[in-house]
Amino acid sequence: MLDDFHAAGSEVLIVIPEDVEKSERYANAMGFSGVVIPDKKRDIYRQYGLDRSWFGMIQKSEMFVIDGFGKIRFAQGHGLPFSLPSVTEVLDVVKDMQQFQE
């Protein structure tokens, strides 16, 4: 699926609130082969309002599509990992953005 995003001129990043080693281990366990950004200090998490867990048990999760100018074009997830949009839905957003950049 990463190839589909790359073909649409985009990159997929995952930010994990751990050190480098734990972040890479988590991404590998998920089968994720894209760019992994460790965020142990949670600086990125705070910037996007994900610095708190849900009822102290589940880390808030969100899916963002950010354009080349740093503007958020899509955000969904409501903070819960099981409410994230489908990969296909996000890919459609990226493809729509690509039309306007050409």
Give a verbal description of the structure.
With 102 residues, this protein is of the alpha+beta class. It has one domain (6-101): Glutaredoxin (3-Layer(aba) Sandwich), CATH 3.40.30.10. The chain has 4 helices and 6 strands, in the order αβαβαββββα. The strands form 3 sheets. It has a two-stranded parallel sheet. A two-stranded antiparallel sheet has the order 3-4. The longest helix is centred in the last third of the chain and has 15 residues, at 87-101. It is globular, with a radius of gyration of 14 Å.
Task: Briefly say what this structure is.
It contains 4 helices and 6 strands; from the N terminus they run H-E-H-E-H-E-E-E-E-H. It has 102 residues and is an alpha+beta fold. The chain is globular.
Terminal CA distance = 22 Å
The biggest beta sheet, please?
Answer: 2 strands, parallel
CATH architecture: 3-Layer(aba) Sandwich
* Regions with little confidence, pLDDT below 50 for 5+ residues: none
- Decide which structural class fits the backbone: alpha+beta
**Approximate shape:** globular
How would you write the strand order of the largest sheet?
1-2
How much beta, percentage-wise?
25-35%
